[in-house]
Every structure is written in C-alpha cells, then in structure tokens.
User: Fold ABC transporter membrane-spanning protein from Corynebacterium ulcerans.
Amino acid sequence: MIGITRPLVGTGVLLKATLRHELKRFIPWIAIVTMLSTSSILAYAWMFPHREDRAVLDATIGGNPALGLIFGPARNLYTNEGFNTWRAFALGGFLTGIAAIFAVTKATRGQEDSGQAELLASGAMGRGARLAVAVLLGIIGSTLVGVVTALCTLLCGAEADATLLLAATFTATGWMMSAVAAVAAQLGSTARAANTLAVSTLSVLFILRGFLLSLEAPAWTNWANPLGWLDETRPATDNHWWPLLYALVFTLIVTAVAFGLSSGRDFGQGIIPSQPGPAHGSLSGVEGLIWRLNKAPAFTWVIAFVALGVIFGYFIGSVKDLLASSPAMAAMMAGGAVDPVQLVNNFAVTMLSMLGIIAAIPGVQVVLRIVSEENSQRIEPILTGGISRLRYFAVILAAAAATSTACLLFAGVLVAWLSSRADIGLSFLDIFIQSAVTSVATWPIIGIAAVVVGVRPRFAIAAWVGVLESFSITIFGPTFKAPDWTMAFSPFHHIPHVMEPDSHVWGVLGLLVVSALLCVIGCRAFNRRDIGVG
Assistant:
C-alpha cells in the first residue's frame, strides 16, 4: 500500500546513504574537467603571449577541421576565456555526461543486477525512490563538476561571466544525460545494456553537433540537437544564459518519461527484453565463450563505426571547402605559405588517428570484461574445468585486438571509398592501408589495460589511461607545440604516413614489440595473482 500511495517514500534516507557511498565516484571526473579548464587559462598567456601568436593559433585551428569535429567552432581565440571555451566546452560537457550516465545506471540497473535493489525494496521504500535517488545523484554530481570547475578556473584568473556560463553548460549536460540514463535504465535488460544505450545516445549527439557545426549546416540543425542548445550559450562571445532553460525543461520531461516507464516494467527486467539463448548448446572451448560474451557489443560497435566511417569520409571529402572557409588559412594557401596537398594528407591521417583512438575503446572494454566476470564469480568455474589462466587471458586479449581492428577497418573502407570519390587527390588504397596500419596503434592501449587487469583489477579505471593519454597528446600536442619526446608517448605518433614517399615501417614494428611486452606482463601477472583479489 505504501508503494501505491507514496511512491517516493524513503527517498531522503536513501539519498543520504547513496551520496555518502557513491558521490566519490565523481571525483576523477571533476578532476579531469577542472584540469581541462584551468590548464587552458594557465597555458594560454604562456603559449600565446602576443597577438601574432594568437593569429597563428587561429590559422592552425582553422587549418585542421578535425579539431572542429570534437571541440566545435573556435569563435574567439584572442582571449584566454575564448580559448578555454573552444578547448573545454564540448569535451567538458561530454565527460560530465559520461560521469552522470555511469552514476545513474549503477544506482538503478546496477543495483538490480547485483541484488542490492531487492534488499532495498524489502524495506519501507516507495517504488520510485531508487530512480529518484539515481537521478538526483547524477544532478548533484554534475552540479559539483560545474561548481568546482568554475571556482578553480576563476582562481586561475579567468573572467567571471564566461567562466560561470561555461561551467553551467557542463552541469546542464550532466543533468540532461542523467535523465537519458534514467530512461535507458528502464529500457536495457542489464546495466551493461543500459550504459550502452545512454552512452551511444550521448556519442551520437556529440558527433552530430560537431559534424554539422563544422560543415556550417543550417541553424535549425543545431536546435534539433539537445547538445546544440548549449552551443547557443556562446560563452566568451555573446554569453547567453537563456538556452540553459531548454536543458532544464528537457531534464524534467525525460525524467518524467523514465518514471512512467519504470511503473510499467517488471523488477529486474528491461522493457527491451534480452534475447534467449539457443535451444542447443554450441559453445566449444573458451574461444566460443569469449565470442558469445562479446558478440553483441562488438556488433554494436561495428555498426557505430560504419556510421562514423560515413561521417569522417564525407568530412575528409569536404576538406578543401572547410579549409577555404577559414580566412587565415585561405590567405596562407593563396600566398603559397602552405602546401594544399600536404594539408589534405595530414588531415586524413589526423581523422584516421581520431578513429583509431575511438576504436581502442571497445578493445579496452573487452579486457575489462574480465573484471566484471571476476567480480561476479564466473571465472573460477571456467578455470577449474581444465582451462589454463594463460589461455583464458590470451584469448580475451586476442578478442580485444580483433574488435578494435575490425571496427577501424570497417570504418576505413567507407572513409577510403568516400575520400577517393572526392576530388582531393586521395586514393582508396592509400586511405585503406593507412587505416590498417593505424589499427596497430590500438594494441599498446589494449596492452596497458591488460597490465592493469592482470596486476590490480581493483584499479580498473586506470585501464583507460592509454585512451586518455593518446587522445590528449594526439589532439592537444600539436596545438600546444609539444616537443617530440612528449608526442612519442602517443602510439599514434609512430604510425607512418603511407601517402608520403619516405614512410617506413619501423614505427609499426616498435608498436608491435611494445604491445607484445605489455600483454606478456599482463598474462604473467594474471597467472600469478589470486582470482577475486586484486
């Protein structure tokens, strides 16, 4: 009777307990977003002290449309607030959204999968209390991201108006994604499926916003995207606060939809049911088991990379128009200061490197599946059945490398086809070979994840260091004029440019050696440590 008349009873008590135990999970995300913003303010005056330096920066960013796909348009690079907005706006919002999604999903479907929700439901608690607490957790955590980022950035000397508005867009993104995750938690049959749905939604919105803004699509396309609403705030230029109201309305409406869906689904089940297994068993060995566990997410990632291949291929095919739209770069090309052919080749390599960084994500996820299987106590029965630890671990690493490679090759075929059809001097074979050698750079990143899981699985979040480091160095390194020894820490820096006549394979061979070494270290550590203790 309590669950019918008072669906939110017990929310306050549960919220206090949840904040005490789960809010700390936002700390790494708060640190990353804060560092992203504060480093922009601190580095700007040091790296670009004179107006001439800032003009070169404007031309450099205008000459690399790939950056616009991630960071959006650079509207004002002549002030530190404008530079911070360009560098932190899109990426800071994306990271805050990811943090909110993980928090909400764990507090909803994660608790149902682990059995915690059943214990909570046995007490005096309304049916909607857990969902309300999960959404509030995401909202509070996202608000903390914005508040801490704003305070630290202001202490670094930034102006208040642009900084507060920029931080507010981070918070607004987290709020909206908390609501999206709440809906995904009702749709997905497991926490893993719910996470995939929510993160996929955020990723699609993120890529579409950057893609359409870079192509200077009609204004209505920005308003058709919830993340595009936040772009209309224009921190450091126009400083519009009113678009944040749209984010608030979106959060309220989508959260209401989540509550409506929650009241109509069975406990522990998703509205989208999981597919039943085959009537007759067909698994033969650990290879078949690993294939079965990772088949669905692998196919999902392949479909995503097919879409990315179309977007990136079209983007590369339009590179000349994109470069011409930058006044500074157009002047440099007209004056002969830069080689258009070299610019096109470098742009294609940069885009494929970005695809490679994204392709490393599913590979790391496959490796981290070991941790979830271990925590669920499903590994020990396998290892007691005659399967050696080394074989089990090696098969998973092979599956991880194959997943990342397949994703990049599927995208590479489409990028090569679309690029070769455009009149920009790129051939299908060159782009496809470039995508193939780029896939090798994902293997050391998978090797880092293998070392983390093999040595200390309790620090599984460290498995993402390779992805984060590669992204930071590959994307930010050239902008901040990083020295070669710094760029060398990114595996994508060692990939040869096959379109250049003097390219060689030594970088690829070095990556293979490093990958093998990391995988051997991970295998030996996994073979020696206790299962379930890390």
Q: What stands out?
A: DSSP finds 24 helices and no strands in the chain. The two ends are 44 Å apart (CA to CA).
